[in-house]
Design goal:
By secondary structure, this protein is mainly α. It contains 10 helices and no strands. Helix 1 (2-31) runs parallel beside helix 6, helix 6 packs antiparallel against helix 7 (169-194) and helix 8 packs across helix 9. The chain starts with a helix and ends with a helix.
Length: 279
């Protein structure tokens, strides 16, 4: 009973974050900007480090405000930079953002006491030690985002699919900006809880699996949520039982599941072709 009480906050946190990241993950896959999560997560971490350098405590409101501001500004720039005919692929721009953010974070780590430990913690996370306070804080931040995306979801999905809203590039960019800002807020809130790698795998892994087997948009999001939640719970159980790091355990489970699903999908297609050929 004591174990369940101890594991309850991380379990609830994983289920909540798996749901949020599943929604955005399906959008990210459809937009073809796979590595934007890692870039945004690193930018958020850099923003927090700048806040620490300015004198704020790591988990303070001041450091979080600096991190949010930094992330939203960079995502705003990325959204504005999107044009119909691009000289550079979006992934190249995202890669540059990530490298610059990581490089600056490493430089700042030399000036902050315990900076290297903070970078390690940011990458791997430690969801096992999540408290109910963090869970409530995530819910408080995510509820308005859920409501906003429910109200604007159809238009945002059209933008994701490359459509122009009401033949207006201005309106399209506004919806695009809303998507990136809400996405950035979710990432900034998720990284301190789960770490960069775990946030990335929850964003892309479950969405990739559901995309291989499900065609309906809503069904993809639901299945992504289920897969992400089950993978997270399995990782928490294994990490707690074997006394190993929880973040890498969850990443490994969902990552392996994604590859197995891909092989299963490939094999099922080949089997279908062979059966069709024999008939």
């Amino acid at each position: 009973m004591g174990t369940l009480v101890f594991l309850a906050p991380p379990i609830v946190a994983c289920i909540i974050l798996a749901g949020m990241l599943s929604y955005f993950g399906n959008h990210i896959l459809s937009r073809g900007i796979i590595f934007i999560d890692i870039a945004v997560a690193q930018i958020a971490a850099l923003g927090t480090m700048i806040g620490i350098l300015l004198g704020f405590a790591e988990s303070s409101v001041g450091a979080q405000i600096v991190s949010y501001a930094f992330t939203i500004i960079v995502l705003g720039i990325f959204s504005v930079m999107k044009v119909k005919k691009q000289l550079l692929p979006q992934e190249a721009i995202i890669g540059i953002f990530y490298c610059v953010a990581l490089g600056m974070a490493l430089l700042l780590a030399e000036k902050i006491p315990g900076g290297s430990n903070y970078i390690t913690k940011t990458i791997t996370g430690n969801v096992l030690w999540v408290t109910w306070k963090s869970v409530v804080s995530c819910l408080f931040m995510f509820v308005p985002i859920i409501i906003l995306n429910l109200l604007l979801g159809k238009s945002i999905r059209k933008v994701t699919q490359g459509e122009i809203i009401n033949n207006s590039f201005g309106k399209t960019r506004i919806y695009d900006l809303v998507f990136y800002i809400t996405f950035g807020i979710v990432i900034v809130k998720s990284v301190p809880v789960m770490g960069i790698f775990l946030v990335f795998i929850l964003l892309i892994g479950p969405a990739s699996i559901s995309r291989m087997f499900v065609n309906s948009w809503k069904s993809r999001i639901i299945w992504s949520w289920v897969i992400g939640s089950v993978g997270s719970l399995a990782g928490i159980y294994i990490s707690y039982t074997l006394n190993i790091s929880n973040g890498p355990a969850i990443v490994g489970i969902i990552g392996i599941a994604t590859y197995l699903a891909a092989f299963a999908r490939l094999y099922s297609k080949r089997s279908g072709k062979e059966i069709a050929a024999t008939n």
